[in-house]
Amino acid sequence: MSDQTRVLVTGAGGFIGHHLVTFLKERGYWVRGVDIKEPEFSTTDADEFELLDLRRWDNCLQATREIDQVYALAADMGGMGFISANHSQILHNNALINLHTAEASRMNKVKRYLYTSSACIYPEYLQTEAEVTPLKEEDAYPAQPQDAYGWEKLITEKICEYYHLDHGFDTKIVRFHNIFGPLGTWEGGREKAPAAMCRKVAYAKLTKNPTVEIWGDGEQTRSFCYIDDCVTGIYKLLNSDYNQPLNLGQDYLISINDLADLVADIAGYQIEKKHIDGPQGVRGRNSNNDRLRDVLGWEPAITLRKGLESTYAWIEDQVRAQLASQKQAA
Ligand code: NAD
């Protein structure tokens, strides 16, 4: 074995994992990617990529062999539409993945372990207004996440905290707030709001039908963090000595209606918003970044507009290609 640090990225076939593999390779790490599927939109930069189902204990042992650092990203997940309709599946699959990955990593003497939690762990009762008070890490309790997805994330946070306490296992916990960017799921039901909005606006523009459907009244609010800031942040956290949960997101709050207008402006196309019934999640959610700044001396810096410009351009290309192949098939 060389003296390069050996890193495992689980969920390396997914959106954030795929970008993280590239980021780590650019910094000289030896990287193993693991997932149940290959990356969908471009080939992996990992030194080794293994197709493994991490719900299985034997596969977790295999994935974590001869590894120094683990970024645990694998999860059965998606946007609001998916996580509000698949509670038991999500809880079952993600609990198995996370229990087995953490224990196999400890047994295989992994030195550092980063778990990717979510802003979905925060209690529903603190997110009832669109003009929400930004959420601090200590707001997590008393717990009342909206969905099973959030409950499972909280349990795995606790596993990480107790492994650290009981075994001195060096675990880190990051709570992402809506990460977006190119090379992420943009259709099919698992896509998240920024990708869905870029797709809807791109379809409207390319088919010259200005109607864009918005779930609910569109006044629900969120903050969105660009993928490059996300991978920088988790890299800094893994290499820090901080072992408590930490927010990682932007703290710029925007309504879904304003997000639609921003994407339309980037597309250079005038849309007509049509509000329809659909899952909206909590009414408002924003990240309080005080602790992030204290712990890492850093915070996300890429503006929503700049991030959306590259995301929209990539999704418009996907939509254009899809429309062309549909036309050819017709
Ligand atoms: P993603 O769905 O693109 O990636 C997750 C990957 O995990 C997928 O490629 C999937 O195939 C893989 N996976 C699922 N089941 C598996 C299994 N049994 N064995 C092996 N691999 C399996 O999601 P993402 O946006 O890249 O998210 C990465 C992590 O960050 C997840 O844990 C997610 O919960 C968390 N997170 C993401 C966001 C966000 O905005 N994207 C927000 C909060 C938390």
Notes on the structure:
This protein is α/β, with parallel strands linked by helices and 330 residues long. The chain folds into 2 domains: 6-179 and 225-248, Rossmann fold (3-Layer(aba) Sandwich), CATH 3.40.50; 181-222 and 252-282 and 302-324, Alpha-Beta Complex (UDP-galactose 4-epimerase, domain 1). The chain has 10 helices and 13 strands. It has a 7-stranded parallel β-sheet with strand order 3-2-1-4-5-6-11, sandwiched between helices. Strands 7-10 form a two-stranded parallel ribbon. The N and C termini lie far apart (54 Å). Bound molecules: nicotinamide-adenine-dinucleotide. The site of nicotinamide-adenine-dinucleotide has 26 residues, from α1, α4 and β5.
Topology, element by element:
Elements: E1 6-10, H1 15-26, E2 30-35, E3 48-51, H2 57-63, E4 69-72, H3 80-83, H4 87-107, E5 112-118, H5 148-167, E6 170-176, E7 179-180, H6 193-207, E8 211-215, E9 221-222, E10 225-226, H7 227-238, E11 245-248, E12 254-255, H8 256-267, E13 272-276, H9 290-296, H10 304-329
